[in-house]
Amino acid sequence: MAAEYSSFVAIGDSFTEGVGDPDPNGGRDRGWADLFALRAAEQWPALAYANLAVRGRLFDRIVDEQVVPAIKQSPDLVSFAAGGNDALRPGFNPVQLATRAHEVVRLFKASGAEVILFTCADVTPHIPGISVLRKRFITTNDAYKKVAKRHDAILVDLWADRAFEDPRLWSPDRLHLNTLGHQRVAYDVCRALDVEPDPDWLTPLPDLPRPRRDMNGVQWAGRHFAPWVKRRLTGKSSGDTVNPKRPELTKVK
């Protein structure tokens, strides 16, 4: 019999906050964690949900700002996704990340929570010039696989899901998932936890033709990459003025 959970806390960066998936009701971005919580509540009626994730956060700041507030709420299910932003920056240290990830998962497990971990989806085919960082993503994914195995955590292997090769699952910035992409993650999480996914998430996209990119490499760099570089040079983050959208556990339905 599949496990049933009564409280779910999601922590991380833009991936977990839901950037790229606008709320159809006009609120904050929605994303896979919201979608999963809504779907899981159909199966687990008592489910309460919190989302502490903030866009732009690096691994250490996620740990420092979100882990203790999550544990204080005594959830029985936690998702932890961090390190993608770090892998894009100079000085990335995968050994340090792996060491601290082990400690984070150990703390959650000691608190009585089940833990969901992720490998990142392969973004390198979609962003010009980023293939040079592919080894970093693979190294980070390998670290999370080892952490999941060591602590018997649930691993959602997005890298192995070939659906993310389709550019139609990615936002115009090519770094964040769009609505279809977040639905696919929610589907993968549901499958990992024996929750019945929303059938609409499996509606196949037409095989051909795939839409062309809405801008070429030069246009994309000017609109999306250059502002990202400017923030790095000025020490700013897209999440500097952003607070968690759902900081406390509240009933989903």
TrEMBL record:
InterPro entries found in the cross-reference section: GDSL_Rv0518-like, SGNH_hydro, SGNH_hydro_sf
* Domain (SGNH hydrolase-type esterase) ranges: 10-184
One family name in Pfam for this protein:
Lipase_GDSL_2
Which Gene3D superfamilies does its entry note? SGNH hydrolase
Domain of life, per the record?
Answer: Bacteria
- CDD domains named in the record: SGNH_hydrolase_like_1
Task: Name it.
Answer: Lysophospholipase L1
Protein source organism: Glycomyces harbinensis
